[in-house]
């Protein structure tokens, strides 16, 4: 039912449009024009006026279409992000042995333009074949790769859906992300006292030494099967002959269990405070929730719908948890029960990124089938 050549051509066209994260204007303008020509009325929100991103999110609402009387069904939302990581400018796709690659100097951008292309194909198929469906919303987000900024700043008043399908996981089509973690960020600025490191180091209070002492007392890495923690950024110092006065530090804790994440980030904060107080320094420490957790049970309606659709097209479901965050976390936080699906992209965020053409075809077929199952 899908047009495989059209889908491939669309994907190739999309990856050739530069859209590194925070530079999404060109692709949003392209999609607005494309969606208008498909007979929809895309709305760009003002997310780019509230966060450092290059354009707003695109939201499209398509009323239900029925040729027969139906009972109440779920209002569906399909979402993919349009931005990519770097190096993502001047992408030249190459087809080889059934896969699409870049030419090796850039990423490919299947993350997440494979999802965008599949959604566009699904829209065309249901229109061309007059397929009955309930209300459908399409959300193309921006700024996903720089901290889920698009979905965090979306105009929530425009969202009118019950169930969401996010197309943003690696793994073959059939992978269902049944759980995702809550994440807390920790940002600290430690201020000690500068002094000459060779003449009178005793007069100084080293922010670097304080950070080092705190970090050595933190439990980091894999905490347990549900929880991880990391210190990822440390910046400070101006010269080797100056006792470092100021240092900034950034870390995180995430867990499928909210209380574990709260406890972990709290322990990390306490380690910092203890080291700072011991040396007579000061610190400004900010802890924030970056996104909420989500979890699905095999008996949830959303899981039953997705598994039935997969079975109808001969795909075997694979249910897994994830330690990563995505727009699915944000939409679940908004009350839209959103499942993240594998779309076949491989080696993402690298110049070795690729996607099998058959996986691209398969995810488009799955989206059409989900619409049919829900109607």
Automatic annotation (TrEMBL):
Listed GO biological process terms: proteolysis
Cofactor: Zn(2+); a divalent metal cation
Cross-referenced PROSITE patterns: ARGE_DAPE_CPG2_1 (PS00758), ARGE_DAPE_CPG2_2 (PS00759)
Top-rank taxon, per record: Bacteria
The keyword Hydrolase appears for this protein: yes
Domain Peptidase M20 dimerisation positions: 186-274
Cofactor notes: Binds 2 divalent metal cations per subunit.
Similarity field: Belongs to the peptidase M42 family.
Protein name in UniProt: Peptidase M20 dimerisation domain-containing protein
